[in-house]
Amino acid sequence: MKKRCAWVTQEEIYINYHDKEWGLPIYDEQKLYELLTLESFQAGLSWITILKKRKNFRAAFDNFDYKKIASYDELKIAELLEDKGIVRNRLKINAAVNNALAFIKIQKEYLSFSNYAWSFVDGKSKINHWQDRSQVPATTKESDSFAKDLKKRGFKFLGSTTVYAFMQSAGMVNDHSIDCFRHKELI
Prior knowledge:
Number of domains: 1
Low-confidence stretches: none
Strand content: under 5%
Strand order of the largest sheet: 1-2
Number of helices: 10
CATH superfamily: Hypothetical protein, domain 2
CATH architecture: Orthogonal Bundle
Mean pLDDT: 97
Shape: globular
CATH topology: Endonuclease III, domain 1
Largest sheet: 2 strands, parallel
Radius of gyration: 16 Å
Distance between the termini: 21 Å
Number of strands: 2
């Protein structure tokens, strides 16, 4: 039996996310926007709630096409607020639109959002060697800097804790415990 990080439950959706996605370095613009948006929606909720709704989020948000989302109007926002398949929080939905606009501005400045995001870890995954999940921080100096800079650029619903979760999911940091089979695979 494969040894996994302690936070993984027996739910198939969690196992698949952990084994195939979490911590895998991501450079694709649309996938980075998706993760950033989903982490933003997760604030105050459990990640499993978001994972279970991810298919619905993709359908509701045009497969996280940030260029389309940047042009959402009040009619589209009203439609999203009626969609029972997603988290229907006006502030978070508005933040997704706002953040798409800010995302595009960063792309213009840095040639890609990926270049910008990965600059906070000097362009390569930071490999941690946690023995126990109690050692994993909720924030780091990198996530503090990243979140502060995002906020300065107009992003909403992305504090340091949310940004650190994004960094973990996007593989900017490898926070798999050292006894987890994925830790070595992602070095």
